[in-house]
Each structure stands twice: as C-alpha cells, then as structure tokens.
Amino acid sequence: KAGVTQTPRYLIKTRGQQVTLSCSPISGHRSVSWYQQTPGQGLQFLFEYFSETQRNKGNFPGRFSGRQFSNSRSEMNVSTLELGDSALYLCASSLAQTERETQYFGPGTRLLVL
Amino acid sequence: GQQLNQSPQSMFIQEGEDVSMNCTSSSIFNTWLWYKQDPGEGPVLLIALYKAGELTSNGRLTAQFGITRKDSFLNISASIPSDVGIYFCAGPRGTSYGKLTFGQGTILTVHP
Question: What are the C-alpha distances in Å from A103 to residues A20, B42, B50, B92, B98?
C-alpha cells in the first residue's frame, strides 16, 4: 500500500506570493491533517479535514486555508507569503473510524520564502 | 492551551548506551504517542499508550504512561547508529487524533 504522498517536495517562493501544497492520503483514509514544522516553534497543528469538511483548526492566521476533495486528497494554500512561513509542511492521514487511529505522516513539503 | 515539555533537547551518546527521555504536561492527556523523525522524512509512530500506568515495549524501545496522566517517558536500550533522529512525544487535543500536540523533540546522536 502506498504511503502518504506530498507534492511538491521542495518549493521556493518570494514574499507576497501564494502557494498551494498537495497531499494524497493512504488509500481508504478519510482524515487528513496538516502541520507546520519550524526549528523555533516545532510541530504545530494547522487543520484537519474529514469527508471534505474542516473538522479542527489550529491557531494560524486566515492566510492559511485548506480543502479536501471527494477522493480524500487535500490541498493547503498559503496566501501573501511571509518570510516566517518558511517551514516543513507535513500532511498526515488516518482511517478515522475510531478515536484511536494512528496518523501516518508524509515526507513533507519544504517551503522556503525569500 | 495544552503544552508538552520534552527533555532533554538533545543527547549525544555512544553506541550501546541506554537512552531515556521524558515529556510532561500541565494538562491531562488520555493518550501519549511517541514518534521518531528521520532527516527528510515525516514522523513515524513508535509507541502508543492509552492507559495511565501502561508500560509498552516495541523492540528495544519502552514507553510508560505516567500515573498522573501528565507525563510519559521513552527508553531506548542498547542504542545503535540507526537510532539517530528526532524523537517526539505527542498527544491528541481532546478526543480527536487528527489534532495532535507535539513536544519540542529530543535530537539523538549516536556515536559508533
């Protein structure tokens, strides 16, 4: 079974631009969560989608948004990029059939904002 | 909000040594998770703990869920070079496993 895939793996953007990152969950998984990882703040939860609906949201500004498609694939978008948005963005998926569901992480998209 | 304090921040050990790291919180967690992240990869779940006092092993790894539900520790016995990486504790916020709070991580370096 293929794991969680994220595209692109690396991205360089400039301040003010916007970016869209993509995540394909493990087949059959319905929940997709996004995290931002930086050296200073560590791993921080962005949002979770389940059956095309945002189920949970972290404490990030409105410039960060996401969506989930009917095939469970998810995208996150960051508008008006700032230097501080440089980070590794991780996506995780799970079956979400019960509360005790393991999340499987993808390799991440490394975003550099110049 | 819920915060997880993980220590130590980094460890430099010799191959064969045992390692211990822990995680504490000011809030109660009903589940403790331990992840490992290798360079260029996403975190991988090592051990999940669901009950206060629970002690669980996974090969050379042993983790315990503290009785107060506010702490957990991870031990690695007889470390080997491939143990190198960043170890994170994590717990779900509320009942949703899709929304995890992570500790700051422990960077482990193993010298052959």
Answer: 22, 11, 15, 11, 7
Q: Do B98 and A48 touch (CB under 8 A)?
A: yes
Q: Are B89 and B4 a contacting pair, CB within 8 Å?
A: yes
Residue A79: CB atoms within 10 Å: 14
For residue B22, give the 3-state DSSP assignment: strand
Tell me which chain B residue has its CA closest to the CA of residue A47: B99
Give yes or no for B2 touching A (CB within 8 A). Answer: no
Q: How far is B51 from chain A (nearest CA, A)?
A: 12
DSSP assignment, residue B66? -
A9-40: pLDDT as tens digits: 999 999 999 999 999 999 999 999 999 999 98
Contacts of B40 in chain A (CB under 8 A): 107
What is the band of A97 on the pLDDT scale with cuts at 50, 70, 90? low
| Mutate which: B5, B65, B100, vs A, most A CBs within 10 A | B100
At residue B92 the predicted structure's pLDDT band, cuts being 50, 70 and 90, is confident
Each residue's pLDDT tens digit, A36-58:
999 988 999 999 999 999 988 99
